[in-house]
Amino acid sequence: MEVAVLDIKGKETGRKVNLSDDVFAIEPNNHAVYLDVKQYLANQRQGTHKSKERAEIAGSTRKIKKQKGTGTARAGSIKNPLFVGGGRIFGPRPRSYSQKLNKNLKRLARKSALSIKAKEQSILVVEDFNLEAPRTKDFTNILKALGLESKKSLFVLGDSNNNVYLSSRNLKSSEVVTNSELSTYKILNANNIVLLEGSLEGIESNLSK
């Protein structure tokens, strides 16, 4: 599929690029997309939750009342989970939530996500640009020119560019990544995908394997 190349002022440069049908025009595999997004979100969890169990509570270990004759249930310690301030029964412990997926499935999921965005005509191709210094205002002007000021956008660079990255960091609605950092979740989470010309070769070579 052919897409017009825009400049940072939102005007067509007169050039067009051909996006590979093997990456941007496949039949989306929804289950692969689901698994990849599920893995991404699971891997974001720190898993540092912890509550104190009976053995970890600070408190006396003496028997708080005699075994028989009170008319109530026997109790051996104030740290009993049934008492206020006692330990928690089967409380959460630190653990890893990370999941693993094979490379072919992740590659299929990313191609499916890009194909969905291409079908929705939510992909823009912009010629490579650089900013002289990290300035949020400069990046905001680019968003205005492309008509993305009020939309969630994902900019995909060919190589890391510190000035562009720092200029977008304060904007909640925009994110800048390189083609190697592209994920299914980030693609679907954005309303529009802005591909810089320099990123196309890397995206297609990574996903056409």
Lay out the secondary structure.
Elements lengths: L1 E5 L5 E7 L2 H4 L5 H14 L59 H17 L3 E4 L9 H11 L6 E5 L4 H7 L5 E5 L5 H6 L2 E5 H11 L2
Helix count, per DSSP?
A: 7
CA gyration radius, whole angstroms: 27 Å
Helical content stands at: 25-40%
What is the CATH T-level topology of the largest domain?
Ribosomal Protein L4, Chain: A
How is this structure best summarized?
Helices cover 33% and strands 15% of the residues.
Provide an overview of this structure.
This protein has 2 domains: 2-45 and 101-207, 3-Layer(aba) Sandwich (Ribosomal Protein L4, Chain: A), CATH 3.40.1370.10; 48-96, no CATH class. By secondary structure, the protein is of the alpha/beta class. The two termini are 19 Å apart. Strands 2-1-3-6-4-5 form a 6-stranded mixed β-sheet. Helix 2 crosses helix 3 (103-119). The protein has helices spanning 21-24, 30-43, 103-119, 136-146, 162-168, 184-189, 197-207, and strands at residues 2-6, 12-18, 123-126, 153-157, 174-178, 192-196. It is 33% helix and 15% strand. It is elongated and about 95 Å long. This is Large ribosomal subunit protein uL4. One of its GO terms (molecular function) is rRNA binding. One of its GO terms (biological process) is translation. InterPro entries: Ribosomal_uL4 (IPR002136), Ribosomal_uL4-like (IPR013005), Ribosomal_uL4_dom_sf (IPR023574). One of its GO terms (cellular component) is ribosome.
